[in-house]
Each structure stands twice: as C-alpha cells, then as structure tokens.
Amino acid sequence: MKRNNLFGELLAEALGTFVLVLLGDGVVANVGLAPRLAAPAYNWNTITFGWAMAVVVAVYVAGGVSGAHINPAVTLALAIRGKFPWQKVVPYWAAQLVGAFLGALGVYLVYMEGLRGAGMPNVWSTGPGSVFGQAFWGGTGAQALASYSLFNALIAEIVGTAILLMGVIAITDSRNLGAGANLGPFVIGMLVLGIGLSLGGPSGYAINPARDFGPRLFGAIAGTQGLFDSIYWLIVPILGPFIGGAIGGILYDALIGRSLEQK
Question: Whole-angstrom Cα distance, residue 97 to residue 81?
C-alpha cells in the first residue's frame, strides 16, 4: 500500500528537482566545456533536448509520490486552481529549492576540473553572462542579452510558463485527451522541448524559479561572477514564471476546463 505523507512528498520533490537540475545544467556544462567538437556539434538544440530529457526523468522519479511539481510556479498555479493545499506550498518550494541547489552541486562535482579551468563560467542559471549567451549570442555579462531588453525577457518567461502550465494541466487532465500508457512524463518533456525551441531565445526559458535560483545561489558560492549583479535574477526567472504559471492555469480552467465540465 502506498503511504504518502508530507515528508515523503518533500523528499520526492527535492530528489526530482535534483535530477532535473543535475541533467539540465549538466547538458549546459557539457555544451560550454566541449571544445573537442566543432561549434555546430553543440548548440541550442543540444541544450533544449537535454533539458527535455531532464524533465522526463525527473517527473518519472518523483511523480508517483509528490506529483512531480519540481517547479514552484507549478505548485503555485495548482494551489490557485484549488488543486493543491495552500499549507503545502511553502514546504514544496523549500524542497524544490534544496533539490535545485544540490543538483548544481552535482554538476560541479562532475565537471569541476573543466569549470575551474574555464574560470567557473555560468552554467547554472539563465540570463546575462550565461554560457549560452557567451557561446551563441556573443558578448559577456549584460552584453550577452543586448538584443533583448529585461522587459522582453520577462514577457518571454511569462508566455513560456503560461504555455507550460496549460500543457501540463491538459496532459494530466483525465477529462481531456490526456496521455495514456504512463506516457505523461515523456509528453511533458516534449512540451518543455517545444517551449525551449520556440520561445526560449529572449530569456533562456527558466520557466521555473527553483531551477534558476538554486543553481544561481550555488554558482555564486562556487565562484561564478556576476550572477546577482542586476535585478534581472529576481524579475525575469522568478517573478516571470510565477506570473505566467498563474495565468496559464487560470486560462486553462476558464477556456477549456469549463467546457470539459459541461460535457
């Protein structure tokens, strides 16, 4: 008999988010520290597919115990929809943040020699100064996002997270088409892949406050420079996903869920 309790759910959320960041930031480190192949061999597609697979594995790991939110924006959106107890929201957030921080530690342990040799680049978080910005957009620091304003990046995070929540809710909604044969986690991974490929450019598609803040905090401790030099870290990858997640959940219930209830 399955025995779920809050402590077990929090452990599952922490482990699921650990796996998410370990594999997700792991692919970023692999891209940023891989001179053995020509530049076209490792690109944005590699990162988006790596993050998609990270989501698939993380949701399979934690889904049966905690529901595999592995994302504070998901937790908040479900609570707003009345599908998750408010008293569990902050504990879930804390577990997700701890898991994300430890996932970044895992990436450091796997790639520590390469990271040290490269001067501890930002493989941890999105936005200015990230490895992707340096490798593919040109420039470093704030110049890496010269083509996109903070406002544009915020809009991208809001829209991307809204699509994430609408997709996750639809995929797991038994009243809708849903995903059968235990394929839900895989389809959610493909959803994240689509968001990264289609909407990820302006901000790097954090779409998850814990995924960005936990590794960002670890990176600052490990010696990566510039991670908290501007207000970007708070507005785009934290506030943006919270706003977008709430909008996505509300829109799904208002435009789709209401019709499903009437069928």
Answer: 22
